[in-house]
Write a structure and sequence with these properties.
Length: 423
């Protein structure tokens, strides 16, 4: 929610240029482009909602009359501004040897209704900095631009050794508590933002004493925040959260999706970070193995719709923890070749999207029923891997000739892989 402080202000824009050997005397305090206060004022009128770039908790009242002066401080033009856009354009047109001057006092009304008067540059700067802090804390406390269609997702990062929580999502509830959804379980808690010694902090407190709560319950410093990511850090760890929002467009089965794939499923509403399943237009290049035939993966045993992403990440994590498996698959078995379709899927980039994964068994069956049976998707009539593990040495697959599900050895040859994404 934006908090607006209304300012009634008369601003004099002083334009001056210096002639060589004839410096112009400035008769009053002025602000140059490099001054912090100048930047704060410009942020007020800059279009956009980014709380890092733009100060949106202050608003000027229009129309506003601005007087332009020549190099000798003689008034040459009176300009009436009617909106922030016009004010922004005027400020951006100033050259480095030009400046602005504000006429005080400025009368302002605080959010609680209190009226105050700002009498000089220092008081205005203090007010705007306080407003900027208030804006950041409000933004981070709310966390999401739109809790109906936006969530934060913990992304899979190839270089990280610990991707245990990749694929988990965090979203805001109607009562402004938060929920962390991980491995088909919900963990409810709170998210509080405060500023200590000019550093923004987030305190996460999930209910209970579960391993998930113990992992996430910390006071974090906000190391960075922008329109795409929120990076939290402690003295020993860094955690990256990726903002993910629905585009609010309606799709039907068979439509072209936002990543150039095909819509295969509509859940009916945006929950836990997604509504639609989009399938890649073609099979993954190369018929790779599911993985090590002597390695049970507990967190890859889910069959349900919505579980494919976490299954795929669990498979990748397990094989990355097998020392040199990709170059020396004999650490698992002499019958493996070191390929793992889950890792290839997580690194696949299609239409600039890097959020593809192997479908769970039920997701894979949706591809067969909703698309293949209707002649959509360019599928083969062979077997396709699911990301659902069946046993220590077997995983689940679907025969696209019959639609039946089967247990295949994790190193079975000539098995196709078709990737999906959710949004």
């Amino acid at each position: 929610m934006k908090i607006f402080t209304r300012l009634t202000v008369a601003i004099l824009i002083v334009l001056f240029s210096s002639c060589e050997n004839e410096p112009v005397e400035i008769l009053k305090d002025t602000l140059r482009k490099e001054d912090e206060l100048f930047k704060l004022i410009r942020n007020i009128v800059t279009i956009g909602d980014n709380p890092i770039e733009n100060n949106i908790c202050v608003d000027f009242i229009y129309p506003m009359v601005v007087i332009k002066y020549d190099q000798y401080i003689n008034p040459i033009q009176t300009i009436t501004l009617y909106n922030d856009n016009q004010f922004e354009q005027l400020l951006n047109q100033l050259n480095q040897n030009q400046s602005v001057s504000i006429s005080y006092p400025i009368e302002t009304t605080l959010p609680d209704g209190t009226s105050i008067s700002i009498n000089n540059d220092e008081e205005l700067k203090k007010s705007l900095l306080s407003c900027e802090d208030q804006n950041l804390i409000s933004y981070c406390s709310g966390m999401l631009k739109n809790p109906v269609t936006c969530i934060y997702e913990i992304p899979y990062i190839e270089e990280e050794l610990n991707n245990d929580y990749a694929g988990a999502v965090i979203f805001v509830n109607e009562d402004f508590t938060i929920t962390l959804f991980h491995l088909n379980n919900n963990y409810v808690g709170t998210w509080n933002v405060l500023k200590v010694n000019n550093i923004l902090h987030v305190n996460i407190n999930l209910d209970g004493t579960s391993a998930v709560a113990q992992y996430w319950n910390h006071n974090y410093r906000i190391a960075d925040i922008n329109e795409d990511y929120l990076i939290l850090s402690t003295s020993t760890q860094t955690r990256k959260l990726k903002l993910k929002c629905s585009n609010l467009l309606d799709y039907e089965i068979g439509d072209v999706g936002p990543a150039g794939g095909i819509i295969a499923y509509d859940k009916g509403e945006f929950t836990n970070g997604w509504r639609y399943i989009e399938v890649a237009p073609n099979d993954l290049t190369g018929q790779e193995e599911w993985g090590c035939i002597n390695s049970e993966i507990v967190n890859a045993q889910f069959d349900l719709v919505g579980a494919g992403h976490q299954n795929t990440i669990a498979i990748a994590n397990r094989h990355k923890n097998l020392i040199n498996y990709f170059t020396n698959p004999s650490v698992c078995s002499a019958f493996n070749n070191g390929t793992v379709c889950a890792i290839s899927s997580l690194n696949e980039i299609i239409a600039n999207k890097r959020d593809w994964f192997i479908p769970s068994l039920e997701e894979l069956q949706l591809l067969y029923t909703n698309l293949h049976l209707n002649g959509i998707g360019n599928f083969s009539t062979g077997y396709y891997w699911s990301s659902s593990e069946g046993s220590l040495s077997e995983s689940k697959a679907v025969n696209f000739n019959t639609g039946g599900s089967f247990l295949l050895s994790k190193n079975a040859p000539n098995i196709n892989t078709r990737l999906i994404r959710i949004f």
